[in-house]
Amino acid sequence: MVPFLALVLLTVVQVGLLVRTRVLVTHAAREAVRSAAVGAGDGEVRSAALASADLDPRRLHVLVRRGGGRATVELRYVEATDVPMVGPLVGDAVFEARATMHLE
Hints:
The protein is an alpha+beta fold. The protein has three helices and three strands, in the order H-H-E-E-H-E.
């Protein structure tokens, strides 16, 4: 019974970490598009996304588009699932977020 309970507990921890990452990626997209909307360059937009959330820069891909009076930022982040026993069963998780804002 104890091994089963340990597996369930580790699964809950892994799901919690993935939910946290999802929230961070969404927040980073919002901050990045705010930066893009006021005229920041693509490097500054990426820096804004990284500064707003605790994300690994090597795993974050940022795409910035401007046109039609709007700025759109798309983020793609690959999160390693590394909780013992559970993480290897799930594999890496990919999170994507998109935000659009009028240019100022």
